[in-house]
Design a protein that fits this description.
Elements (H helix, E strand, L loop, with lengths): L6 E8 L9 E10 L4 E9 L10 H6 L13 H12 L3 E4 L2 H14 L10 E3 H9 L7 H7 L10 H16 L4
Parallel strand pairs: 1-4, 4-5
Antiparallel strand pairs: 1-2, 2-3
Helix pairs in contact: 4-6, 5-6
Length: 176
């Protein structure tokens, strides 16, 4: 019997790097069953910005934010409730997981949504550092290039979650 928790590869795009000032614009999750690493669900959502006036213009440019693409964006509370359902009892995996989890935890607290995921996390930055060495460029795009992984659309939550998943698989299944 498999007692391993499912993994949730996640990514989020924000209006900047400051959790007190900026907000999440886009959120994605790819749930994966262990030990075979089979994708069982993918989901992404654009989030209605509540304070776009505090956004870092450079972050908006990097994330390709424009009002038209966010016209049908969902309310933050609805997105975080849905994410909570999808992440329930899974272990989160991300590229620079501390950044993502800190933003998520702040938002879940602010929107009064219970945290449902396992408190353990995995970070592909750390994994790459130990597998590939300290001189390796650790940006997701650099790792994808080094590991011969096609990155569809950088700084798009679902695309980056997919890239993170592929980087993870390549790192744990290689003899680098």
């Amino acid at each position: 019997m498999n007692n391993l928790p499912n993994l949730s590869f996640i990514d989020l795009e924000t209006t900047g790097l400051n959790r007190q000032k900026h907000e999440i614009l886009e959120l994605a999750i790819i749930r994966v069953r262990q030990p075979m690493l089979k994708i069982i669900d993918e989901w992404e959502a654009k989030i209605q910005p509540q304070k776009i006036n505090t956004a870092d213009p450079q972050a908006l440019k990097i994330n390709n934010y424009n009002e038209k693409d966010w016209e049908k964006a969902l309310s933050p509370k609805l997105v975080f409730e849905k994410f909570s359902q999808k992440a329930r009892d899974t272990m989160l995996v991300a590229h620079n997981i501390n950044f993502d989890v800190a933003f998520l935890e702040d938002n879940f607290r602010n929107w009064k949504v219970p945290i449902s995921w396992d408190h353990h996390t995995l970070d592909t930055v750390s994994l790459a550092y130990f597998k590939l060495g300290p001189n390796t460029k650790l940006k997701l795009s650099e790792l994808a290039l080094k590991l011969n992984i096609k990155q569809e659309k950088a700084h798009s939550a679902l695309s980056d979650a997919r890239t993170c998943f592929e980087v993870f698989k390549r790192l744990i299944n290689s003899d680098w």
